[in-house]
């Protein structure tokens, strides 16, 4: 049977389960990626697991998110992460080296490999023909310990690209077009695989832009073939020998099919405050702009900065605009300097910042209230910028540059100039001086973890009771993001390794009384949500912190994939309404009662809750393995219990087997 590229990647790494949509499968993992906003938890989880040395082919710890050092917290976390990388056998990318995704693609990306990352935009690596999936930190820790990744087998969504992009339209507009068509839930339960003759006109970095923002569609990941464009890229970064061709077989089919004619696209923009709120730039032209920010993993390539410099060449930015340039790596900064583009940006009035995520995660560059900020970033969830009442728009570098010149949202096709196509070097700069390789295992064992006063050990969580009554402390609507559950930004993220402290910020953008009410609620509580609950970031703080405050159960109409998995990993039961209309029956303050919960979870996919005498039918999508995890209080206590059983039985095997997977129920 002919296989598409995604199926080839899955079949070559499959260790358990049936690779049919809706079934849980287990995959071996070759590489992992962690960054500093989520990596601290991963390293604390490795400590909790008692791991001696990682078992993956390659793992890299990046420092790219929390670069502002306004007090000791971020600096101390960076020291902790470096010591943990040395102790457990990871590569370490120092602060200022660059954003994890483009740096990883340049130095470690390998066609045909699997990778998971504790960052939802890990899917960007699909640009090179990798199966790269964003997951919660605990999944990373378990992969480093030698466990497979367990995931519900997605549908494969084949998107055929035809034609060639016209002038003033670039890769960002391709993914914005898919978001315009399908909104932020369109990719849930799917892998997006791009194919077709239109690929001939997209470079590996163009594909990175498109793959990166597959996360905004809710997709499990994005896969491009490893073809001549990938070979060209690896040759340009000095790694041609790492190329392996990966193409869909002739006659391969897809579960879902779609077509995009690249030649028909026009400049697009996502309005505040959702990546799915997309429309043509021409329809909002004329809106005043206060800030333009260029950079982030969503537009990280040399071309993305160079084209802005060429548009601004010999011109000045509008007096009312702050233009911020965030180079995505030191290597990009080197090439921008060699090509003369940094000079053009500075001369035009741009502010050039260090290499990192910065404004994308709310670490500086927070816009003024009520003023439009245009950004080449992947997300514009409310408050993510660091300003609670922000107005952030997402666009291409071309549209960003046009706004910087005119002071208004402007269709770049209306600029009085020919489209400038920057001439890029055949070889990109390679600078690995800030990438520290792993220590020898014998040396690694001598390393002690460096823990500052803000670094607290991972909390322990108790098992799920068989019978339980839970007050509903919060009800929320559709598309609640992890940025709303657990805010990012310079005020909150420095406490990422201090769960008791960061828990004080849970849901403060939605209801600032929640942390206090939750802390005062004895015996646990529940939250009720709408569609696509927990979309966005992979940060598991959005589960661990409310779990620390007593969250035991979330009932929603549907869940975003990573957050759903994170809930189960930390013993929070994710349930869905059998009848979505039943959500209207539950109000804040109601008490949900469950009896014989363990038996119900183990015997089927439905459970009954009661509000007084009124029953509400709920369902779960957990596999047998996940049910036992949740009942045990989470994956760490579950694994510890398994190890104890093996030790009691006198088994010497250090690789603890997990239960055979069963089909998971498809999302409704």
UniProtKB/TrEMBL annotation:
Pfam families cross-referenced by the UniProt entry: Aconitase (PF00330), Aconitase_C (PF00694)
Iron-sulfur is among the record's keywords: yes
Stretches for region Disordered: 645-668
Ranges for domain Aconitase A/isopropylmalate dehydratase small subunit swivel: 526-578
EC number: 4.2.1.3
Keyword tags: Iron, Iron-sulfur, Lyase, Metal-binding
Name this polypeptide is given: Aconitate hydratase
Species for this entry: Nesterenkonia lutea
């Amino acid at each position: 049977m002919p296989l598409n590229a995604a199926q080839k990647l899955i079949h070559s790494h499959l260790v358990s389960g049936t690779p049919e949509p809706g079934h849980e499968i287990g995959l071996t993992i070759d590489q992992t990626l962690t960054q500093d906003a989520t990596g601290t938890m991963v390293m604390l989880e490795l400590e909790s697991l008692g791991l001696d040395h990682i078992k993956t082919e390659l793992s890299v710890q990046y420092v790219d998110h929390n670069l502002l050092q306004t007090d000791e917290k971020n600096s101390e976390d960076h020291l902790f992460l470096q010591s943990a990388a040395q102790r457990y056998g990871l590569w370490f990318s120092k602060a200022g080296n660059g954003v994890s995704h483009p740096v990883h693609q340049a130095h470690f990306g390998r066609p045909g490999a699997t990778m998971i990352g504790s960052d939802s935009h890990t899917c960007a690596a699909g640009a090179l023909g990798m199966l790269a999936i964003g997951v919660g930190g605990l999944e990373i820790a378990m992969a480093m310990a030698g466990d497979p990744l367990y995931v519900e087998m997605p549908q494969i969504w084949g998107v055929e690209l035809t034609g060639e992009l016209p002038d003033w339209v670039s890769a960002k507009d391709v993914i914005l077009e898919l978001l315009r068509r399908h909104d932020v839930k369109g990719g849930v339960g799917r892998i997006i695989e791009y194919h077709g003759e239109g690929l001939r006109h997209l470079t590996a970095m163009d594909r990175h832009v498109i793959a990166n923002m597959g996360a905004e569609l809710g997709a499990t990941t994005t896969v491009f073939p490893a073809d001549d464009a990938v070979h060209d890229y690896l040759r340009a970064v000095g790694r041609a020998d790492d190329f392996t061709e990966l193409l869909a077989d002739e006659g391969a089919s897809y579960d879902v099919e779609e077509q995009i004619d690249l030649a028909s696209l026009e400049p697009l923009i996502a309005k505040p405050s959702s990546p799915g709120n997309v429309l043509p730039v021409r329809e909002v032209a004329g809106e005043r702009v206060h800030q333009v920010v260029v950079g982030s993993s969503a537009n990280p390539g040399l071309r993305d900065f160079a084209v802005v410099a060429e548009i601004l060449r010999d011109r000045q930015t509008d007096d009312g605009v702050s233009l911020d340039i965030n180079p995505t790596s030191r290597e990009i900064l080197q090439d921008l300097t060699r090509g003369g583009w940094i000079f053009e940006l500075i001369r035009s009035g741009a502010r050039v910042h260090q290499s990192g995520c910065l404004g994308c995660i709310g670490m500086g560059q927070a816009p003024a209230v009520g003023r439009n900020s245009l950004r080449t970033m992947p997300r514009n969830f409310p408050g993510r910028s660091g300003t609670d009442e922000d107005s952030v728009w997402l666009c291409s570098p071309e549209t960003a540059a046009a706004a910087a010149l005119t002071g208004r949202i402007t269709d770049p096709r209306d600029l009085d100039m020919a489209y400038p196509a920057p001439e890029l070097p055949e070889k990109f700069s390679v600078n690995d001086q800030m990438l520290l390789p792993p220590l020898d295992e014998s040396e690694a064992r001598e390393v002690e973890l460096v823990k500052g006063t803000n670094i607290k050990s991972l909390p322990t969580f108790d098992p799920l009771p068989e019978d339980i009554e839970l007050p509903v402390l919060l009800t929320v609507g559709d598309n609640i993001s992890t940025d709303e559950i657990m805010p990012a930004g310079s005020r909150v993220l420095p406490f990422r390794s201090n769960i008791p402290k960061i828990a004080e910020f849970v849901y403060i953008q939605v209801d600032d009384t929640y942390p206090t009410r939750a802390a005062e609620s004895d015996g646990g509580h529940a939250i009720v949500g709408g569609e696509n609950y927990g979309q966005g970031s992979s940060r598991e703080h959005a589960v661990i912190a409310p779990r620390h405050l007593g969250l035991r159960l979330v009932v929603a109409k549907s869940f975003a994939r990573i957050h759903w998995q994170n809930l189960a990993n930390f013993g929070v039961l994710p349930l869905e309404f059998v009848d979505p209309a039943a959500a209207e029956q539950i109000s804040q303050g109601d008490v949900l009662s469950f009896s014989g919960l363990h038996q119900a979870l183990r015997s089927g996919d439905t459970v009954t809750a009661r509000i007084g005498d009124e029953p509400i039918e709920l369902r779960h999508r957990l596999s047998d393995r996940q049910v036992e995890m949740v009942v045990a209080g989470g994956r760490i206590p579950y694994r510890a219990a398994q190890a104890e059983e093996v030790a009691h039985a006198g088994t010497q095997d250090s690789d603890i087997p997990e239960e055979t997977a069963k089909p998971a129920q498809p999302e409704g």
